[in-house]
Amino acid sequence: MYLAIREIRFSKGRYALIAIIMLLVSFLVLFVTGLARGLAYDNAASIQNMDATHFMMEKDSNHRFTRSQIGEQALGQANQVVGEKNAEPLGVRMTTVTAEGAAGKLDVTLLGMRPEGWLTPAAVEGSALNPQDAGRVLVDRKLKESGVRLGTVIVDQASGTKWTVGGFVSEESFSHSPAVILNLYDWRQLLLKSSARLAGGGAGDGTTYSAIAVKATKNQAERLAATLSDAEVVAKSDAVSAIPGYKEEQGSLWMMIIFLFIISSFVLGVFFYVITIQKSSQFGILKAIGTRTAYLARSVAFQVLLLTAGSLALSMLLVQAMAAFLPAGMPFRLQASALALTSGAFIAMSLAGSLLSVWKVARIDALDAIGRTAA
After folding, report:
1. How distant, in Å, are the alpha carbons of 67, 189, 332 from that of 198?
2. DSSP secondary structure letters along 89-123
3. How far apart are alpha carbons 32 and 108 in whole angstroms?
4. Distance CA 86, CA 102 (A)
């Protein structure tokens, strides 16, 4: 694109200003995208990390783990349809704990799991969860910032139950609170101690779970749903969306991102439209000497593509540099797939913004342009 590059080289200041604006807008788009992805992951990391495809939950619980209560009977039904290896009981409860050596109270989410099952995450420090070690738990590494260490005793305020921290896990949280992972024995003891707070069958004998996590094909999920009378099968994505505050938080952030896309497309479109109007005489003369409209349109589109790609590349470097200096507790996550998708959408919106200029180039009449130049 000889003409496009020659114009940019001739008017460096003008195109540099457009590139700076594109750089700032694309940086903001990528940063807010990373923040949205980071908040989404922090809100549901423990559920998203699970290999489950579906969850069995109590009917009328609105797909929420903290509202659902499901018993051993449902676990037995899941075992019959998907097999014992593909069904795991899961307990979820949000609570407040105090910890020795830690200042103040800590909001955490208790997750009850089979230590030998596929739901339980691997310990990154300390030793793994063991079904024989009553009163020993794994906690998310974020709790280290609050003074929790290996061997620290934490106390549940609601039930008075005490556990000892035996290991740390990485990136395990639910509804923005760090996870505390118990074995099923401790989960049942917790339910027995606080059974007065629970309602419904099964709570009294400590065999109530929040959900049954299953690995199932679509046909198995439909067969399982058909066998249940007081429970339902929920897809993993629906269970994640039902976490309190998840949809509202993500909706606000994605609305900001969409508006940033629209603003960037509008700003770029206006800039190039004004430039095209200023150059209408030159375009007319080029048409008069035989330059095709398609060539001129491609030249304008190439300029937009060049400025957008260059600005985007610089903004990626800036975002990566900024991510390296963000505080450890700040949820920011921009994976390669999200980066590629956002960049592709940004380029597409920028090219869409150039269509007005392309339309203007197509409507320039060579004779009129020559007449204006002669006058």
Report:
1. 11, 13, 37
2. EEEEEEEEEEETT-SSEEEEEEEEE-TTSSSSPPP
3. 27
4. 39
Under DSSP, the state recorded for 67 is T
What's the confidence (pLDDT) of residue 199? 53
Strand pairing class (231-235; 54-58)? antiparallel
Enumerate the H helices of 210-335 as residue ranges.
Answer: 218-227, 236-241, 246-278, 280-288, 293-325
**CB count, 10 Å around CB of 69?**
20
Residue type, 164: T
Residue 62 three-state SS: coil
Kindly report the pTM of this predicted structure.
Answer: 0.78
Q: Is the pLDDT of residue 41 over 70?
A: yes
Per-residue pLDDT band for 373 (boundaries 50, 70, 90) equals: low
pLDDT value for 370: 64
d(CA 100, CA 197): 26
DSSP characters for 164-175? EEEEEESS-EET
Distance CA 120, CA 181 (A): 8
Question: Among candidates 69, 19, 26, 301, which has minimal Cα distance to 203?
Answer: 69
**Angstrom distance (rounded) from CA 81 to CA 303:** 59
- Check if the beta carbon of residue 276 is closer than 8 Å to that of residue 357: yes
DSSP 8-state code for residue 363 = H
Cβ neighbours around 152 below 10 Å, total: 18
Decide if pLDDT at 206 tops 70: no
* Structure-token pair, residue 375: 């006058």
Question: Residue 123, Cβ neighbours under 10 Å: how many?
Answer: 17
Closest alpha carbon to 215 in 233, 231, 232, 240: 233
